[in-house]
Amino acid sequence: MKSDSTSIAIGVITVVLLVAAPFLPNWAMSLANVALCYGTVVLGMMLLMRTGLVSFGHGLYYCLGAYAAGMIDQMLKLPDMALMVAAAAAATAVVSAILGLLLARYRDIFFAMLSLAFSMILYGLLVKSSSLGSTDGFNISAKTIVGIAVADDARRYAGYGITVVMTMLSALLLNRYLRSHRGRLAEAIRDNELRVEYMGSSVRSTVHLHYVISAVLAGIGGAMMAINIGHIDPEMTYWPQSGEFVFIAILSGTGNVFAPLGGALVFETIRSFAYEYSPNTWQMVLGITMLIVMIFLPGGLWSLIQRRKAA
Amino acid sequence: MSHLIAVLIDGTIYASWLFVIAVGLTLIYGVMKILNIAHGSLYALGAFTAVTFCNAWFAHGYPALGSFAMLGLAAIAVGLVAGPVIERGLLRFMYGKDEVVLVLVTYALFLILEDVIKLVWGVDPLFVQGPNGESPYALLGNFEISGLNYPNYSLLLIGVAVATGAALTWVLTRTKAGKLLIAVIHDREMSAALGIDVGRTYFVTFTVGAMLAAVGGALTAPTVSVVTGMGAEVIVVAFAVVVIGGLGSLPGAALGAFIVGMVRAASIHFAPELELFSVYLVMAVVLIVRPKGLFSGAEVRKI
Amino acid sequence: MILDAQGLNRSFGAVTAADNICVAVEQDSVVGLIGSNGAGKTTFINMVTGYLKPNSGSIRFEGRDITALKPRRITQLGICRSFQIPQLFNTMTVAENLMVGVGIIVSAGGGWASSSQRKVEPAKAVTAMLEQFGLEAYRDRQAGLLPEGTRKLLDIAMAMVVRPRILLLDEPTSGVSADEKFVLMDRVMAAVREGNVTVLFVEHDMEVVLRYTHRVLAFYEGRIIADGDPVVVLDDVEVRRFVIGDHAPKQAGGAARHA
Q: What is the pLDDT of residue B146?
């Protein structure tokens, strides 16, 4: 089994993050959690972008994953973290497999708009459903992990732990996939779909597959976020949430699986500090940053690292 | 029966409102190939500016009817200021980039403008209201149809929509400037090669589009509580209208507005649970049947 | 007979792009398709490769009816094409471009690629193709930045990656400078002969046609007006009139030229 520097780095960082857990102050652990959850979602966005598609509605799966996790707690009364993440993955896999049949036929603006439409359909459904708490959403509380009960004060460590493990595992698997023959088709499709078809490979089935993978990643991210924050509401699928994911994807670049993770960390750090400092200007800061990145660094922050490697 | 009439009237009012907002959006896309998310912010800017102008007007004790002129003035002011600043200051440098990249640029712009609004007007909801409760909305009184009461203000809205549509159609088909615009819509490079000043066309188009968004906002201001977040709400519905009708098509915007207006009115009356997403459902259905919207051009051979 | 097209008809509104086209191609032959623009050559290729469906008629490949199949399926069956405007993966290097094709074969689901094809070592296969087409020097260059002649060569190499039995080339030397065109065609024909491939190519350059083809089909207004030996076809009265552009018939004397 060939291992590359990225896979090794993933392993090392996983260990570091887990070992550091007892020493992290609350704010650092929260920041890491959000960065990792967002990072997982953006890993999916990255896969889609490498395939030439930008989804403006990934909040759909992020939210779906969170609600799936929530329903495991609320309706099945089985507040198990592992089960929640699994449920999120299953739910998003099924929904995306179906929606993907339609969406895989669209590109560019229409793909973006259609994905936006579906995320707003979910929003409308959730807001109107009083059993799910309507606009308030509801709280969830995970009490066990793989059946093992977790003490109340250790719960945040368990949440952090599962977040670290799932995110890094996703990054590892995605990295492996992108280096495979099938994974390389992503950029080929982005560059020239016609040529891919005329070489005997089905563009639609690859796009569909990538759509489903990205949806599952978003669902897992949503579930982990729900576990860590303890609350779920329809805002998770409101379009600005999807916009944030797109923003982080642009900020990060698509060069490597670490890009979305790093980008999410940068984003969340800027957001936390900007919000603390001046709650009425953090969006402006975000917007200006995005413009700067898009104009001067179209490859995202990762392209800075790539340049240094090449030099 | 009265339900049906209510749906028709509600639908027409809502459709008029949608048309005014969507037509600027589709125009900008048609000419500049930019799907402008910041259109929502321009709408909001129009609303907030209208509040400021109208309330100042009322505070000075001027005749209440003049507040309508204030609405118009607000829209024009926003269009003439925000339009050129955005187009010359930012968009001009982005032409030629990928369509999706342009959308993201307008998204960044949207984020920036949302905070500009917060900084200037604060975060509390505002109302177009004079110190003695004067309001352009109440000023016009009501009319009645088969037992249902409607404010005459809605007629103003319908009137503005019709006038806008007529004016734009006339400009596009009867004037030289309009014909040049249509040339640019079809092929920017070719138009430039023929000597059409594409830069100026873009400038004028964006300014007009911004003004139209602001008109929508200004007209809406007296009927709602003006609050941040109204831009975000509006833009998704505007997108739905424009995509349904076909990006860049004026008749498409009208048809899209009509369909969305009727669908929403119908769902409010007959199936309120569906209200919020009925619009997006229609958009999804339309895109399935006609992948590029109802009024879309023919496909060209690629190889 | 590896390819048999019978009674192909295709029109676009009032324009007849194909009018009762009947073509039977022998295995391992090299066939040139000539004709002025709009005569129907590219339409013919587009129908064979599945991009267009004929209004009527049939196309059989090794006895199998491929008329209504999708381009992807036809590629999988063994018919590949190159394009007038090279269709490459512009952000990838030349080697990566070829690797995509090799990767598709190696991971071909549904078993459409033969097991021997699937067992190739990808890196070696790519290097072999680079050598075969004389592209080693460009191995790590970005495809989008290559000179036009090289892009055309790469486009043809991409069509060969999936080891087709029939190769259709759409104007392989258009856009290629005069001194490079024979170099390009020599390379392509060498690779073709190595792979036992039947070739059909559309060409406007009669020198290329004369030099490489065994047989020439001349198109005009959707019909085939001449079919046979290259020298004979290029001398044909109608071909000279409608394709090559000579108005006066060729005669030993030359007196008719002044008519």
A: 73
Residues of C in contact with A188 (CB under 8 A): 89, 92, 100
- The pLDDT tens digits of the residues spanning C13-67 come to 888 888 888 999 999 899 999 988 888 888 999 999 999 899 999 999 998 999 9
Residue B235's nearest CA partner among B91, B29, B88, B22 is B22
Q: How far is C252 from chain A (nearest CA, A)?
A: 48
Task: Please count the other Cβ atoms lying within 10 Å of the Cβ belonging to residue C29.
Answer: 14
Q: Can you give the pLDDT at residue C87?
A: 94
Is there a contact between B277 and A121 if contact means CB atoms under 8 Å apart?
yes
- Bridge-based pairing state of the strands C198-202 and C30-34: parallel
Whether pLDDT at B125 is above 80: yes
Residue of B nearest to A251 (CA): B104
| Mean pLDDT (chain A, rounded) | 89
Number of neighbouring beta carbons within 10 Å of residue C190: 13
CA distances from C224 to C28, C67, C134 (A): 21, 19, 36
Contact (CB<8Å) C88/A192: yes
Nearest CA in chain C to A185: C100
Q: Calculate ∠ Cα B163-B209-B291, nearest 5°.
A: 95
Which pLDDT does position C247 carry in this prediction? Answer: 59
pTM equals 0.89
CA distance C232 to chain A (A): 35
Whether residue C101 lies within 8 A of chain A, CB to CB, comes out as yes
CB contact under 8 A, C90 and A195: no
**Shortest Cα–Cα distance, B296 to chain C (Å):** 20
- B109–A287 C-beta distance less than 8 A: yes
Question: Phi/psi of residue C196, each to 5°?
Answer: 50, 55
Predicted confidence (pLDDT) at residue B207 exceeds the cutoff of 60? yes
B49-96 pLDDT tens trace: 999 988 888 888 777 777 888 888 999 999 999 999 999 988 888 887
Query: How many C-beta atoms surround the C-beta of residue B241 within 10 A?
Result: 30
Please check whether residue B120 is in contact with residue B48, taking contact to mean a CB–CB distance below 8 angstroms.
yes
C-alpha to C-alpha distance for B157 and B141, rounded to whole angstroms: 14
Q: Does B298 touch chain C (CB under 8 A)?
A: no
Tell me if A295 and B291 make a contact (CB, 8 A cut-off): no
Tell which residue, B5, B25, B13, has the closest CA to residue B253. Answer: B25
Q: What is the 3-state secondary structure (H, E, C) of C198-213?
A: EEEEECCCHHHHHHHC
